Amino acid sequence: MKVNVHAVNFTVDKKLVDFVQERMDKLEKYYDRVVSSDVFMKVEKTSEKENKIVEIKINVPGDDFLVKKQCKSFEEAVEQAAESLERLLVKRKEKLRTHI
Predict the structure, then answer these.
(1) Distance between CA 93 and CA 87 in Å, rounded?
(2) I need a labelling partner for 91 at 20 to 30 A (CA). Which of 9, 13, 16, 34 fits?
(3) pTM confidence score
């Protein structure tokens, strides 16, 4: 799957990009027709500790899914967003099966 990582207001390191790629590749076992995904990472300038925002948009034929999570670390936010996407993809797959 093609994963585009976009860092807003900071530079992203290779380790984080590899983590995101690896986690996004795991989504293909839930729904194998994912075309591409865009991962937007932002750092909010606030005094709160949970200032890391991750938005993941994935493209599947006929639909786009967008999940947004805010956490203390990017890894935690990516993990939570990916879990939400897993549920969405499973739901989508089940919906398609009922229409066949």
Answers:
(1) 10
(2) 16
(3) 0.89
Report DSSP state, residue 13.
P
Element holding 70 (H helix, E strand) = strand 63-71
**CB-count exposure of residue 7 (10 Å: 0-12, 13-18, 19+):** middle
| DSSP 8-state secondary structure symbol assigned to residue 14 | H
- CA gyration radius, the chain: 14
pLDDT by residue for the chain (100 residues), tens digit each? 889 999 998 899 999 999 999 999 999 888 888 899 999 999 988 878 889 999 999 998 888 999 999 999 999 999 999 999 999 999 988 888 887 6
